[in-house]
Design brief:
Shape: elongated
Number of strands: 0
Largest sheet: none
Radius of gyration: 17 Å
Number of helices: 5
Structural class: mainly alpha
Number of domains: 1
Protein name: DUF4149 domain-containing protein
Keywords: Membrane, Transmembrane, Transmembrane helix
Oligomer: single chain
Distance between the termini: 12 Å
Helix content: over 70%
Length: 152
Amino acid sequence: MNWLTEWAFHLHLLMAISWIGGSVFMFILGVTLRDKKAQQSVYPYVGPIFGWFEVGSLIILLATGFILGYQYHLFSLLLHPNGSEVSQALVKKAILVAILTVATVVHFVIAYRTNGKERTKWQHFFSRGSSMLIFFLNLFVMHYAIVLRDIL
């Protein structure tokens, strides 16, 4: 393993821990803060900090994921799956990451545009829905990351 691969792996791991840990924290915060006043006092401050951190983490995760995919010659398996365990896990993880990325963009745009403002019924639905989707997708992406790491 060369220095680029080592750095990419460690940075990918650190960002994944930050991404998933932050997602779990925000999920728990959302579930436990039932009082509207408490939500309105917390989210306008915590939300933007967390949101920008998560966007940065996602960009680093995608970049290091591409580096690792290139270093381990995984793109040919991704584009031409052969039915092997690594091929199946890679395809599933890539699909989940694509959906996760779209859900993150949707959530971030709505949250950014409505921070400190009253949301419409649809904005609230898509913001909460994308947040829940992100939380659960993180668990599945983490599962396939572990499967891939065990194989590689």
